[in-house]
Please model this.
Amino acid sequence: MMGSQTKLAPKAKLVIAVMAGSLVLGGCATTGSVKRAQARADEAFAASQDGLTAAQRAQTAADGAMGAAGRAQTTADGAAQSALAANASATGASADARTAGAQMAAMSARLKKLEAQVRKLKGKK
Model:
C-alpha cells in the first residue's frame, strides 16, 4: 500500500493558521490588557442588556397600540353596521312617505270630485 496524503482545503488551512497564531499570541497578553478587555466586554454586555430592556418596553407599547387599534376597529365596524341599519330605516321611511303622498293625491282628487257632485246636486234644487 502506498502512503496516503490528506489534502486540506484552503479554508481549513486558514482556520488552522488563525488558531495557531492565536495560541502563539495568547502568551503575549498582559494581565492589564486582559482586564481591560474584560471590562470592555462587561460594558458591552451591560449596554446590550439596556438595549434588550428598551426593546421589551417598545414591544409592550406596540402590543398596547395593537390592542387599541383592534378596539377602534371593532367600534368602527359597529358604527358602520349602525349606519347601514339607519340607511335601511331611512329608505323604508322614504318609501312610506311616497306611498302616503300618492294616497293623499288620490284622496284629494276624490274629494274634489265629490265636492263637484255636491255642487251639482245643490244646483238642481
The mean pLDDT is 85. Residues 46 and 96 are 75 Å apart (CA to CA). Helices lie at 10-26, 31-124. Residues 31-124 form the longest helix (94 residues).
